Structure formats: structure tokens, C-alpha cells
Amino acid sequence: MKSAKFDYTRPHDVRAAIHALADALGEAKFLAGGQSLGPMLNLRLTRPKLLVDVSRIEALRSIDVVNGSIRIGAAVTHAEIEDAGASLARNAMLPAVAREIAYRTIRNRGTIGGSLAHADPAADWPLALAALDAVIIVNGPAGQRSIPSARFMLAAFTTQLADDEMIEAIIVPELSPSARWGTYKFCKRTGEFPDAAAMAVFDPARRIARVYVGALSGAPVPLDALARGIAQQGAVALTATAVDRAIAMAVPELDAVGRKMHAATTMRAVQQALAS
Amino acid sequence: MSELHGKPGQGIGARVPRKEDARHLHGRGNFVSDLIFPGQREVVFLRSPIAHGILRGITKPAGFESVVYARADIAGIRNIEAPSTLPTYKLSTQPPLAQGKVRFVGEPVAMVVAKTRAEAEDIAEQIQLDIEELPALVDAHRARLDTDVRVHNEWSDNLFLTLDFDNNFEAESKKATIVVTREINLARQAMVPMEGRAIVAHWDDRAGQLIVYTSTQAPHVIRVGLAQFLGIDEGMIRVISPDVGGGFGLKCVLWPEELCVAWLALTQKKPFRYIEDRREHLTAGANCRQHHYTVTAYADQRGRLLALDAQITIDGGAYSNWPFTIGLEPGQATGNLPGPYEFKGYRCKTYCVATNKPGFLPYRGVARTGVCFAMELIMDAIARAVDRDPYEVRYENLIPPQLMPYNNVSRKHYDSGDYPRALAMVREKLDYDGWLARKAQGEPDGRLIGIGFASYCEQSAHGTSVFASWGLPLIPGYDQATVRTTPDGGLEIRVGVHSHGQGMETTLAQVAHEVVGVPIERIRVVHGDTGITPFSTGTYASRSIVMAGGAVGRACQTLLPRYIHIGAHLLKCKPDDARFEKSEVVGPNGRVSLKEIATAWFLRPERLPVDVDRDGLEATVGYKPTVDTGAFTYASHGAVIAVDPEVGGIEILDYVIVEDCGTMVNPMVVEGQTLGGVAQGIGTAMFEESPYDANGQPLASTFMDYTMPGATEIPAIRIYHTESPSPYTLFGIKGMGEGGAIAPPAVIFNGVNDALKDLGVEVNETPLTPKKLLEAIERARQAHPQRKVA
User: Fold this and answer.
1) Within an 8 Å CB–CB cutoff, is residue A243 touching chain B?
2) B647 → closest Cβ in A5, A256, A261
């Protein structure tokens, strides 16, 4: 399959990109790494008249550390995050998550902003950034605004992003030296989207305890009570029954098999965090 | 990897690197898609979105009437029909573009021509189809019983054919004390070669020929088919199969798309091409593997198999392919189910059912992946029923070497081999006892260990009598090879088979080197072009190294006395006093090189003896084995599987193969073929599935949904060889192209079932996805609440 006809533009700054999209009156789409949009274009599942390629806008391409936070430009690729170990020393979870995304060839092109905007329920960034309490900076004709990542994704392939807005950057807090985290996902095959995924972050210095379950039918779901219990009582709160109950309550629509898979995944993510 | 390091030199048995690798590793191969002809037009097929319906009308978009073709516009093409002499066989009529009815989602309905593929797709999506939907036949069991809704209206039911086989079943089954029944299922799959189907055709005025470049395993057969269904002389067609990126059976049959593109070039005298895309591949063709078995084994108290009763249902899809016919699959299933085992009673009823899916095609291992899966699962089930080690039960049931050659219960003639020895070697190389000890201890990470075995034998290079018994309209006979000496003493070999990953540009040169001694660097193998190679039915059924290899060997042997005759003259001795030795003729007073002999024949004929053989230094010779019922390669596979019962994950911790393909021409090529096959077998076992919904819509249309194994899913496989030469073939060679793909599902499932035995879990349906595995564990937990289940 070949894509239907479209026009293409590659603006050099965020303002021009937003204008280009607005001028197309709803007939344009932003293109970043193209790892999801590309196949959808070729299958003719989407037919924009214009593609606005934001992948080379300099302001979206850098990772900066500012005031205890890490700012990642929306067009930074997974591979760049994977390779940015040194500048991400204060949040080693980011390169660890990036390293596990699909394959290197996909990571070379796919971007963190693209992944968040596409909002595949099984994608790694919506889950990781929710667990890390990141903030997503979006920009549009009405100006810039910030959205907590835990609230950014609304449902499968649905976010708070307005039609005329784009993601500009992701602000991720640095972790304290005593912070512990764990990630676990189960893929039926290397590089596939996972069948079940969970991530856990415990940062006592910042009074943060989060356990999130992902790869569900919609947005990642927090297991707050379980996370609090573990933060207060440690590993004794991490029993198979507690995890199973937490999953059953937070994600009641899961069938027995799905619950079991997610419970095991959650258990492993938290165990990894506690062992770190 | 191998315990045999290969023989020294470059002849039969030498582990020489493949001649064809350099161009592929440098990206310089020449595939159909690499060929560009001036003025070439792209062809796109509009495919049916409906599984079953009456095609009421096709409305071409205004302004594009002349570049859109429906069935009525290509009247010069005949419908594809593949007759068979099998008694119950019903003929299906497949129009190159749908006519009257559509019978599966993806069936070509219209053809569009444009400058680019994208433009052709733009036009295609504007074509309006008026299809009155009919109930879709999706489930083969239901379709078998349905006589109201029929895929082919002119039939009385939906049965392509039914095979009944009985050899002494009643008498033998009565002796049994143990009866074990299992239902076993294999999912429908696609073949997924790296290169899909691809055709470019143009008219050559100088030759007065239609030149068809197509990605095929069988260029001569495709020429026969094109001539037959285009209604023109074969002499008007030249089929060239350049580099081919994997065939696996998909490319040994004639496609409607081939006919349509060839027709365009023939009638418009311009170049046209069609390149299949992945979505078309996954949904519109290349369907395979979907078998259902109900198998009952009758055994004694020790698990010795006495009789086997089977009912096999094969979901044949909508159309029978030309030339192999849909009959090949049920024929092979019925005949090969008994496998490498010695027992005396066998009854089998096999239904091949028409459904609203793409037609079933012969995929690497044809039927044997299914029958091996069924037979090996039942073998382990027998072992469980008599509470014995599956290894022991399997070992005791294998045909012992002293019975070779052996006529088995399905009347196959097994030529040679020591089947139990291969299994025993797997046990040893796998360190079965070591793993049993570790299994007993339990894993610290909670995973469960299981060990699986499977044995099979693989009919290869079967010839005239076997294919005639399957009723095919086109039956292989003698394969021919031309061997030419070049004036500078090199060799050029021309064969009608095609090499597309089998390494025959190397191995056929090795065969010639074995006889003539010319370095393989100076032996060129030419294949894949009907214009310059002798006829062959092509590369399929693990036949080429036996058939073309035998023909090359015999052609080379034919040339030796001619070399000696000229050489002796040049050496001034009698031919009887001279001998041929490593590309030289050696006489009492010296030696003369093949180069000098060739120079004498081609360039300096005044030096030739007066009674020289006037046929010269070129020979075309035919070959088939002395007994044409096949040379049987065999193998046992063993694997250690770790099951993660919490998430349903499976890891293959070790995988050992002991295989025997008779005399190996090149052990490295044997291993490469085996490894590729095993990767496909792992795909069948764990990943690959083409599911359909109740309306016959394919649910896996991209690699997002159709899961292939990748490099990280293939374990480090250890291959060991033994060599039991076939008594019936030149050099004792046996074919082995398919075997790797046969055993993996059986081995992996037996390993998983061994791991989960204590939980009361038994799985028997491919692919074994994590979800299916967890569901089976969950079912067992509900059925046996007293057992300790993860």
C-alpha cells in the first residue's frame, strides 16, 4: 500500500509549525519519527492533506537539565534518550525505559513526543512518565500550557492535546539519590508492544511512591494504595494477594488471564524497585 | 556446530562457503523489483473486501475506464483449473479476476494500470463494487457439513476431496490394552518469504517472445501454465526467475496475478509489473498449515503402538492451486502421519474442505509439520497413559535399522537409516539426565522446566510414481542437466531447478567438482531461465540436490571418457592406458590438463583424434533415482523449555538436532537449511497465525498482528549429523530442504506439556501464545483445585 497524496512542509521553529497546522484547517498532521503515522499513511487509515514535519525543529531536539528537572524536547528520539546516560544520571529510569522500546531501528526514529501524542495504550512512555510524575508542555495558537503526564492520556489513542496543539517538551523531575524504581513488561516477542507492563517509583526523599500498570485497554492506571502500603511497610506489603486485589480493583475489566499477567508483571516491577 | 567438520577439498562433503553469498551480503542481488524497463507500468489489484458474495457489478471511475480491467476485459485468459485423477476430487474454477462470485477477502476483482503504484491505488479505491453478501464459510468443520451454502455453487457440498485409508486397522487395534485419543489443531498461517510475489513482463520483438520475470521456484512449470491459460505456444514465452528472496512453496504454483500481468504485456507489447505488498501477502494468499486432527492410538501396556486411527480435516480455502492441486496436502497428511514408527494397523479419513479463505498452498514441510505435531503429541500422550518416560516409549516405537528398507503401514518405502540412533544421540547431546536432575530440583525463579522430543522422517526427491498417486496434472520425471566445458577448461552447468537460498550455485558445483575436479570457482551454475536451461518441474519437495545433483553428476561422468579420449591422443597413448584424475588426463608418459583438452576441441581441432566423439565436451543428461519413491531423510529434535507460568512466557533453553540426510554435499548448507526451517517451525509453534472472524475477514493483515519470530526468539541450535546414504540415489544424497520446519512445534509442545505435567496442563493447539498458555493453566486450576498450580 502506498499513501494517498499529501503535501509536506518542514518548519524550522515551533511557531511556524503551529501556524502551518492551523492554516490547514484540520487537514494536517504533525510528523515526527513516523513510526506509527508512517504505516497508517500507507494503509490509508489516515489521509492528511499536509504533513508538518517537526522532527528537525532545533528547540524540540535537546535534553537539558534545569533546576532539578530534566527537559526533554518532544522530537528527541528514544535512541537519544537511551544513549544520554551521562546527562540523565539523575534519572536513570529514562534511558532504561528507552532501551526497552521496540528495536533500535525504531528507537532511532521514534520520538518521545510522538509516542505520547499517539497514545498507544501499550506504549512505554505514557506509563513511565506517569510513574515519574512528568509534566507535558504543549503549545498551540492559544499559547503554552502544562499538563501532568498522569492526566495527559485519556483513553486509547486519545489525549488532552487539542487538535491544533503540539507537544513541545516533557519535564521529568530528577530522582533523589535514595530513589528506587523498577520496570517490567512482558512481550510475547522482543520488540512487540507488551501484553502487560508495570513501573514503580519510590522516592522517599521527595515523598513519592507510585506503582502504575500499563498495556491496558486505555491509559495507565495507578495502584496508589498498594504503592503507599509498600512505602510505609516495605516488602511485607508486597504479597501476591495484595497485588492481585489492587489490580482487580483498579482494572476491574480484566479477565482472569489478563489479571494474572498484570499481577505478575506488577509484582516483578515492584520487586525490582525494592531490590535496587 | 557440527561434529563433522566436512571433508577436505571442494567436492561432495566439503564445508565450502557459498558462492552466492558475496552478492547478497553486498546487496547486489538482482530480484524482480530491481529490474526496471523503459516505460514500465505498475499494476495494482483491487481485491474483494467480502469473503463470500455475488458479484453484481463493477463500476469503473469516470475517465479511467481504459486502465481498469475486470474479468470481461481479459477474456483471453482462461480460468485456472487444476484437474486431479484422485477419485473424490472436485474441480474448482478460479477466474484470474473474480467473476460471478467472490470467494475470499483478497480475491482479485479488478486490475488497474498506472505510472506509479500510488496512482494505481488512487484509481483502484474509486472503483465501486456491487457485491451481494452471502454467509461466509469460515469453519472447516461446519463447511464440511453445510450443503446449502457452498463455496462453489456447482458442487453438491464443500468437499474438495475425501481420502479413506485402511490397512489392517480392525485386527491390530483389537490387541490394544491402552487407548489414547487427542484433538490436535494447527492454526492457519502465511508463508512470509522476505520477498513476496513479484512479476515484470514485457514483449521482446526480436525474439518474438513474451518475457516474464517472476519470482518463482519453477520457471519451466510457470511457462507451461502461462502458455496453457493464455492459450499460446510455449515457444512464445520465456520465463526468467532471477534472484528469489525465499519461496517456501508459495512460488511453485501459478498465480492469477502472473497471468494478468503476462496478458497485459502480451496484448499491449509494453512492460508491466506487479509487486505484492506485505498486506496482500498476509491476507490474500500463501495460506497454509491449518489442519485439525482427532487421533486415537491403540497401544499395549508398555506403550508399544499397535494401531492408529485418525480423522484429519484440512481447511483448503476457496481454490485448488495449479499444478500441485489441493490434493497434495491431504495426500501427504494421510500418507505421512505414521511417521518413523513401526506399527501394523492404520486407518485414516481425511477431509479437505472448501472455505471462504485464500486457497491452501504447499508450505515447506507440506502437511508433515502437522502430522509430526499430531503423531509426536500422541506419542507423549501414550507415554503419560502408561506412566513411562516419553523418550523410552518413542525410542521403542521407532523403526529399528535392521528392518531397513522398510515398507510402513501407509505403504511408504523407507530407504535407509537408523532412526533410534538419532533419538539416542539427541538424548546424549542434550544431556537429558542432567536436565531431569535440574528439573527435579526446581528453578529458583519459579519457572518450570520441561524436555521435549520429536522424531520424523522426510520423504525427499520422490518422483513419478508418488506424484502420480496424488493425482497431479503435472508429474516430475527425469531431471536434466547440461554440463558444458568452456574452451579454457572451466565448466558451465545448466539446470532447470531454481536456487533461492538452497545454495545450489555452490553445491551443484561441488558435485561437478567431485567428478571432474575443476575448482568450484571455475564452475558456473546457470539456473532460472527457460530460455537457456533444460526443462525441470523445479525446486520443491526437497528434490533439487538429488535430482539436479544426480543429473549434474551423470552429465559429468558422461564427459569423462571424452576427456580421456582426447587427452590420450594428446599424450600419444591408448585411451585404455590413460585415466582421469583431478581435471587432468594422466597417461604413462605424462599428464594433460582439461584446459589443453578443451582448447584442442574448441580452438585447435587439428590436434584431435580422428575418431573423436563428435558430441564434444558438452552433455545434457537426464536423471532420476533407481527407485523413485523417495529418499527419506530423518531426524530427531530435542529441546529444553522453561515455562514462566505467571505470565505464560516460554524460553527455549537448549535445542539439539541430530539429522541424517544421507551423503551431505555441504554440511554448512545442510545446517543453514535446517536452521532456517527451525526458525519457521518456531514461528508455527509459538507465534504465527492468520485468524479470521465469523465473516471471513482476516484479522492479521500487517506484522503488527501477524507475529514472526525474530533473531532473539531463535535459540542457539546445535546440529549433529550422521550419514546413511540412500541406496537409490547417485552418491547416496537425500534431500533435506524442509525438515527443519517439521519438528519444532512437536518438540516445543512436548517440552511445555512435560513442564506443566504436574499441573495437569496439556496444550495441543498452535500457536502457543502466552494468553493461550495462561488460559490452559487457569482451566487446569479450575479442573484440579487440589493440585498446586502457579
Assistant:
1) no
2) A261
